[in-house]
Amino acid sequence: MATGVIKRYFDERGFGFLKPDGASEGLFFHVKSFDEHVEPHAGDRVEFELGADPKSGRTRAQNLTLI
Question: Which positions ≥6 away from 46 have C-beta within 8 Å?
Answer without folding.
Answer: 3, 4, 5, 6, 18, 40, 61, 64, 65, 66, 67
